[in-house]
């Protein structure tokens, strides 16, 4: 099995289709995976070990044994799978995530807690600190 | 002249020159000392093992943010694996110390939650019969706190009944997003204290700082240059005032003469060469781990147990604020990837001692957004939000999609910071086998979360669950004590009047070496339960002012 297939089988087990959400290989190609690995060269050796043996025993058993025997490889495979998936523009659109966006605001706008009385109740409950002068 | 030109000029070390003051560390404490000393006409050189931040490296605005930041901007130096940091031996600690090396120090990655200690924090022995009182009071420190706030550009709302009256903050509080409103709703339902968050993030343009645009990546470096760190708030002014800053300069030893007075430091420069910086006064601002490490590495044969350590307390009494987090998901959208990440709301409801709870002292809570989909999935990374589970399948497959659908954009996190009481068994020592990139011994942390902290966290988690459920939470996840949470490093060169029971006096001067000072949180006798940077900078300013006023009486080699 090629590296590409070995990984995609594992990734599709980790991130299958569910409800409106697509499975990993429906939205991410192996080129996306390689791009992610370029951002995290520290994961490359663990990733290579994780896909080295084809999942002859099935993806779940393979992941199970990686999780028990080679935590670093398991972490590399899962980190790359999940991060690549949620970087996909299609997935972001489906979950309503624009990324860490820029949201300018008016710093002088009156905040709701000042007009709806909620902060007033905190103040009305009175002093909380223990004064210390004289100690 | 631009900051770049000034910084470059400062970076050139001058052979054999003796300066008035050399400072180790360019984080919040070292930056305050450098600025005020330079303004007073005192010659000052700061040696910093890290580099100037490059804002283009902060990935917050890019799609790969969650992938990259969990390595490059991880708060644990052992995970970052950057040669500018020193590694830490964490094999004997319940909590990993977190820090960052660079101009701006660990605050490069801080949440910018800006809190003063409370009056009782300075009087724990008198009020609660534990640990020690500080040699000065809340009232003594307040003017310095307010001055630092103006230098830093803090935003917040005055009038909190959990504090004595104080003046207005320099900037209005940041807008409270849906996350903060939902957090406050739970507290309101319980009739408990909450207040709009105060943050070291100006809500308007301030000097070199841009207005915050709520990108929500403060904990991994602010790509907007909006979060206040001293590379922007203090260093441009300090360089103009004549301070010099040498980066990639790792101090390996403080040197002393026959009379036991400090004569300067030896550091390893960017090319791996040893250099000497002579100085009349040495100030350590290397944080609660780096400062005792350097003292333990110094002293030579005259003081084999480390410099300034006749009390035996250097490195001891380490406090790291055991921390728990509660993630709560709600049916309604809360846009919970939007910032500021610092704190939208805080609560001091359980700050003061109530012995009926079964522990002394208390906690501070802060309400934060939960972040992007990878983080809230709990499937990978530091698992800050999710308790360890034996089965990986719980986080993957259909569960992954369901967890993300329930939490992403719909959840908030309450962080619970507990006061840590000092114990001599919790300490920083030198590792016997781990070394940094210059071959110097790494610090080793020996630390156990104590019984008081365990009870405190349990009580607070139970209350927090009541609050989030009162506001309609449909799911809650608790993590306690969070291992990756040693962001506050306190207590390892304790201040006091008695040289047998303390390392420095109330002005930060070492009892054993009167021209060697410590001006970071190592000197704090107790830890409070609030985030410490406001107090660290205020104490550094108080000490620096005193040093300037007393300069003619300073004993020097
Ligand atoms: C992830 C994270 C989140 C945080 N959030 C908050 C928050 O919301 N609010 C808050 O109040 N606090 C927060 N903190 C804590 C805050 O960052 C620290 O309290 C503050 O930075 C301490 O300032 P300092 O100058 O004493 O030490 P540091 O900022 O740690 O600076 C010490 C400097 O000394 C340098 N140094 C150390 N040893 C040597 C040596 N031998 N030679 C040369 N240089 C050396 C280091 O490289 C470093 O730059 C957070 C910390 C972290 C890590
Ligand atoms: S929320 Fe504000 S301070 Fe934080 S990273 Fe975004 S712009 Fe910077």
Structural description of this entry:
By secondary structure, chain A is an all-alpha fold. Chain A has a domain at 3-95. Chain A is built from 9 helices and no strands. Chain A has helices spanning 3-14, 24-27, 30-39, 44-52, 59-69, 71-87, 89-95, 112-115, 118-124. In chain A, helix 3 packs across helix 6. The longest helix of chain A is centred in the middle third of the chain and has 17 residues, at 71-87. Chain B is α/β, with parallel strands linked by helices. Chain B has a single domain (3-55, 72-371, 409-553), classed as FAD/NAD(P)-binding domain. In chain B, 25% of the residues lie in helices and 17% in strands. Chain B is built from 14 helices and 16 strands. Chain B has helices at residues 3-11, 28-39, 65-72, 77-80, 124-128, 138-152, 178-190, 230-233, 235-240, 287-297, 373-377, 398-407, 451-470, 533-549; strands at 18-24, 44-47, 89-93, 195-196, 244-246, 250-256, 262-268, 274-284, 323-329, 345-347, 363-369, 411-418, 427-435, 441-447, 475-479, 516-518. In chain B, the strands form 3 sheets. In chain B, strands 1, 2, 5, 6, 7, 8 and 16 form a 7-stranded mixed sheet that branches. In chain B, strand 13 and strand 14 form a beta hairpin. In chain B, helix 2 (28-39) packs parallel to helix 14, helix 6 (138-152) packs across helix 14 (533-549) and helix 7 (178-190) crosses helix 13 (451-470). The radius of gyration of chain B is 22 Å and the shape is globular. The interface between A and B is large, with 55 and 78 residues. Chain B: This is Choline dehydrogenase-like flavoprotein. Chain B: Residues 18-52 form the FAD-binding domain.
């Amino acid at each position: 099995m090629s590296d590409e297939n070995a990984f995609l089988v594992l990734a599709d087990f980790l991130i299958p289709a569910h409800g409106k959400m697509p499975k990993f290989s429906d939205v991410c190609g192996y080129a996306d995976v390689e791009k992610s690995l370029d951002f995290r060269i520290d994961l490359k050796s663990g990733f290579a070990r994780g896909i080295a043996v084809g999942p002859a025993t099935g993806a779940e058993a393979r992941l199970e044994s990686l999780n028990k025997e080679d935590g670093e490889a398991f972490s590399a495979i899962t980190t790359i799978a999940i991060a690549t998936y949620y970087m996909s523009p299609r997935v972001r659109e489906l979950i309503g995530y624009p990324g860490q966006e820029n949201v300018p605001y008016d710093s002088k706008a009156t905040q709701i807690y000042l007009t709806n009385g909620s902060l007033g109740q905190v103040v009305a409950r009175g002093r909380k600190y223990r004064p210390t002068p004289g100690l | 002249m631009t900051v770049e030109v000034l910084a470059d000029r400062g970076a050139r070390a001058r052979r054999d020159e003796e300066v008035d003051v050399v400072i180790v560390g360019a984080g919040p404490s070292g930056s305050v000392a450098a600025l005020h000393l330079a303004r007073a006409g005192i010659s000052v050189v700061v040696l910093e093992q890290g580099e100037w931040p490059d804002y283009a490296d902060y990935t917050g605005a890019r799609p790969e943010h969650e992938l990259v930041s969990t390595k490059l901007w991880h708060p644990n130096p052992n995970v970052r694996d950057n040669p500018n940091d020193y590694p830490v031996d964490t094999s004997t600690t319940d909590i990993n110390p977190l820090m960052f090396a660079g101009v701006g120090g660990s605050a490069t990655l801080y949440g910018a939650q800006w809190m003063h200690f409370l009056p009782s924090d300075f009087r724990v022995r008198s009020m609660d019969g534990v640990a020690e009182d500080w040699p000065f009071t809340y009232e003594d420190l307040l003017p310095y706190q307010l001055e630092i706030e103006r230098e830093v550009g803090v935003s917040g709302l005055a009038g909190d009944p959990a504090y004595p009256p104080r003046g207005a903050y320099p900037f209005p509080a940041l807008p409270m997003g849906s996350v903060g409103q939902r957090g406050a709703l739970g507290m309101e339902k319980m009739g408990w204290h909450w207040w709009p968050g105060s943050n070291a993030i100006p809500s308007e343009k301030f000097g070199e700082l841009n207005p915050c645009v709520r990108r929500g990546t403060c904990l991994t470096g602010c790509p907007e240059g909006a979060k206040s760190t001293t590379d922007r708030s203090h260093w441009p002014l300090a360089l103009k005032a004549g301070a010099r800053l040498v980066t990639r300069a790792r101090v390996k030893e403080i040197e002393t003469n026959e009379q036991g007075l400090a004569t300067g430091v030896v550091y390893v420069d960017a090319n791996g060469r040893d250099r000497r910086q002579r100085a009349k006064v040495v100030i350590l601002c290397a944080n609660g781990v780096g400062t005792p490490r350097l003292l333990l590495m110094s002293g030579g044969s005259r003081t084999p147990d480390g410099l300034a350590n006749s009390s035996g307390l250097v490195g001891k009494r380490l406090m790291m604020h055991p921390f728990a987090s509660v993630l709560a998901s709600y049916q309604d959208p809360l846009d919970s990837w939007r910032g500021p990440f610092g704190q939208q709301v805080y609560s001091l409801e359980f700050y003061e001692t109530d012995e009926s709870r079964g522990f002394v002292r208390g906690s501070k809570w802060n309400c934060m957004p939960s972040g992007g989909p990878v983080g809230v999935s709990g499937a990978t990374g530091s698992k800050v939000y999710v308790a360890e589970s034996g089965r990986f399948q719980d986080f993957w497959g259909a569960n992954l999609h369901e967890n993300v659908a329930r939490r992403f954009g719909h959840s908030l996190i309450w962080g619970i910071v507990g006061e840590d009481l000092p114990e001599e068994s919790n300490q920083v020592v030198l590792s016997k086998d781990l070394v940094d990139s210059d071959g110097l011994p790494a610090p080793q942390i020996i630390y156990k979360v104590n019984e008081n902290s365990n009870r405190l966290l349990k009580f607070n988690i139970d209350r927090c669950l009541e609050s989030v459920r009162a506001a309609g939470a449909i799911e809650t996840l608790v993590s306690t004590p969070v291992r990756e949470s040693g962001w506050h490093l306190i207590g390892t060169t304790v201040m006091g009047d008695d040289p047998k029971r303390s390392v420095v006096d109330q002005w930060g001067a070492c009892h054993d070496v009167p021209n060697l000072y410590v001006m970071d949180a190592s000197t704090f006798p107790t830890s409070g339960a609030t985030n410490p940077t406001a107090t660290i900078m205020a104490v550094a300013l108080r000490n620096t002012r005193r040093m300037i006023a007393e300069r003619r009486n300073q004993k020097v080699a």
